[in-house]
Amino acid sequence: MPVTPRTALALVLASVVGLLAFGWPLLVDPGAVLGTGTDAPLALAVVLVAVLGVLFVGLGEGTLDVKAIAVLGLLSAVGAVLRPLAAGMAGVETVFFLLVLAGRVLGPGFGFVLGATTLFASALLTGGVGPWLPFQMFGAAWVGLGAGLLPRRARGATEVAMLAGYAVVAALAFGLAMNLSFWPFQLGLGTDLSFVAGEPPRENLRRFLLYSLTTSLGWDIGRAVTTAAGVLLLGRPVLATLRRAATRAAFAPAPASGSAPAGHDARTPPA
Is the pTM value of this prediction over 0.85? Predict the structure, then answer.
């Protein structure tokens, strides 16, 4: 599915807003009191607006149609069912490989929306709605977006290897993003790993990386390994299935006015 300039602008704006939602504590004044991270409703509203913005731009420009929305709903439902099978078990994740493969085939805009809707549907299915949800939605949306931005020319074993490598990086980055969403509010002011309001971002990021290494690295590695394993084991058949579905659904802008319809030679007069 092509990315038009307007779609690209919508994705950039959504990602910038998402980065601010994660990283705003790094920009506060010295001595500021952050409270307890009660910005989650605002973050949820922002991510929903971002997703709807990308969808409406795609619909308006013809890069998304009813068939694409149906595929989006189907893949979101599949992901929502897959995720509870292993989520929370030593970092094992069963859904991120699907986001990587679907984003690869169907493009960055589709991958962005799919990541957000899959995590949202999963939370509704399992009762996992909480202040962490909007940040999970943004993180998963970026996983799908990044997969869609990978080089397009790779195919076969090279493509699967590239996607497996990306899966490792994306899974680790997702874990870091989730840590950043709550770390400034969690430890208080009494530890060497605590966030300090007004400190240079470099110093706070150093504490944050130490915090992540000592608390969640094992879970993040588990997510990375299982996501990469899913890509390596199921990558080829799932990629082929998604490409066949996209071809049969004809995910493409409508032909220009006056052009010959598919299967008809413009040089041959009608009978």
Answer: no
